[in-house]
Write a structure and sequence with these properties.
Elements (H helix, E strand, L loop, with lengths): L1 H23 L8 E8 L6 H11 L7 E4 L13 E2 L28 H9 L2 E7 L1 H8 L5 E8 L1 H7 L4 E7 L4 H11 L5 E6 L4 H14 L2 E6 L3 H14 L2 E3 L4 H4 L1 H13 L4 E3 L2 H6 L3 E4 L2 H16 L7 E2 L5 E4 L1 H6 L7 H10 L2
Parallel strand pairs: 1-2, 1-4, 4-5, 5-6, 6-12, 7-8, 7-9, 9-10, 10-11
Antiparallel strand pairs: 2-3, 11-13
């Protein structure tokens, strides 16, 4: 018995020692990651507010370093980063200049990535807010870890390189989520109308796959030019029950979207969108991710990286909101539930 007791105690000590050393060991890749650098897209409405909100969520309020995409230098001669809450304030290092041509700075400062790496010895996480910011960041030749947000899948695929760890939370909503909302909110039959530009072939394929899984029919026409749009819309609206407006840049362009909404209203067909703005403009329904929800999505990915984890390379947002334009629903005599009830039902859907 004493021998057995000594054996058990020795085994427990060995396990405790292993657990102790594991607790001291750095998690995979976490030790290489340093400060957060934010690059903002001036074309994204209130991108500075997004950065500030994300900083508060990460507990780094007042410590964020942020720069506009137009001021982000790829390599060799760049600009030092301003505080997110005072982008035009004095810099800690040499002051910002918007003209960095040859010879404009006698001692050019390091670019953002190099400066941060020299300061901390670690590779920074660069958070790109918007497509312009993502393109500016990806032009930099340094190895880096990038989290992109408020971009679409096409933006990400167009800039992905082998020497950059790129993790994106895209604005695209899962097609199954959008089609399930239609099933929940609009009485059958469900022939889904779709007019899409050439650049949205991948989204059309995704709609087709999701529709087959749900037993829905897709009535689609491709519109190759602006001149084709009117005819394609008329054909699709005549043979469908609801029009799904895709989230590609062409379909969401103000002129195109307004033309679609007007044509659908004239044909008395409901439109479902993936943006809150288009629900307000005349779509009867929408499923979208709000800015506050995107802040949470970005914070999740950044925190996971900082802890040594790996987010998905391209992730559609897990958080979402449902919007209902009750005025349009009444005009179309659609018995659409209120948006809170629809959100609960959609959240519970498989």
């Amino acid at each position: 018995m004493p021998y057995q007791r000594r054996f058990v105690l020795a085994a427990l000590r060995s396990c405790a020692a292993v657990l102790f050393w594991i607790s001291l060991s750095p998690r995979a890749d976490a030790g290489d990651l340093g400060e957060l650098t934010f690059v903002r897209d001036a074309g994204v409405t209130a991108s500075d507010e997004f950065v500030e909100a994300l900083g508060r969520r990460l507990g780094a309020d007042g410590k964020l370093r942020s720069v506009l995409a137009s001021d982000y230098s790829p390599a060799g001669a760049g600009v030092e980063l301003a505080r997110a809450d005072d982008d035009d304030a004095a810099f800690e290092l040499p002051p910002r200049t918007r003209s960095l041509g040859s010879g404009t700075l006698p001692n050019p400062v390091l670019d953002e990535t190099q400066a941060l790496k020299q300061r901390s010895g670690k590779r920074p996480i660069i958070v790109a807010v918007g497509a312009e910011a993502l393109h500016a960041v990806m032009r930099s030749p340094q190895k880096k870890t990038v989290v992109a947000v408020l971009v679409n899948t096409a933006d990400v695929e167009s800039v992905r390189t082998a020497d950059t760890e790129l993790y994106a939370i895209v604005t695209d909503q899962p097609m199954q989520r959008q089609l399930q909302l239609i099933e929940l909110a609009i009485p059958k039959p469900h022939r889904i109308g779709l007019v899409y530009p050439p650049d949205a072939e991948a989204q059309y394929s995704a709609v087709s796959v999701a529709a087959r899984q749900l037993g829905l029919t897709v009535v689609a026409k491709r519109s190759d030019t602006a001149a084709d749009l009117s005819g394609a819309l008329a054909s699709v609206l005549a043979t469908s029950d609801v029009l799904l407006l895709l989230s590609d840049p062409i379909s969401l362009a103000p002129g195109v979207a307004q033309s679609v909404l007007r044509s659908a209203a004239a044909a008395r067909k409901p439109v479902v969108s993936s943006t809150e703005a288009l629900v307000r403009a005349g779509a009867v329904l929408g499923v979208y991710t709000t800015r506050e929800q995107f802040v949470e999505e970005a914070a999740d990915s950044i925190t996971l990286l900082q802890r040594g984890g790996k987010p998905p390379a391209i992730a559609m947002p897990r958080r979402f909101s449902v919007g209902v334009n009750s005025t349009v629903a009444q005009a179309l005599a659609l018995p659409v539930s209120d948006q809170d009830a629809l959100q609960r039902r959609l959240s519970a859907a498989p």
